[in-house]
Amino acid sequence: MRHGKAGVKLKRDISGRRALLRGLVTNVIEEERITTTVPKAKAAKPLVERLITLAKEDNLHARRQAAAFLVKPEAVKKLFDKLGPRFHQRNGGYTRIVKLGWRKGDGAETAKLELVGSELVKRAAERAARREEKLKQLRGGENEEGQ
Description:
The chain has helices at residues 14-31, 38-56, 60-69, 73-86, 118-146; strands at 33-37, 95-102, 109-115. By secondary structure, the protein is an alpha+beta fold. The longest helix is centred in the last third of the chain and has 29 residues, at 118-146.
């Protein structure tokens, strides 16, 4: 019988597994997407979703719970300032796992764990950077002509 056997061990003891998952979750919140192995992505997904659910109700207790789990204070700030309001209308399903294929070195199956809508945020940032570069070129051209 499988009583009390829930969860994935990821071939680590409890402290190593906790450190690994804390690092993965922190990176997902900071970068909005990470590439890792499929079992690690599946183990980290519910933790990311739980933290985003905490961020939707922004109070001191929720912030302290998130800060106790996440590694960096910047991740806590981003979680509550940007991701909580972004997913406020959504009832779960904040992340997706996209399988990428096998890693060349050891043949492990890799996957991308990303926040839903992060592709739109990345695309908007790229557009803004291109627009800023174009404006900089135009302003640079005007300064040279005026001299």
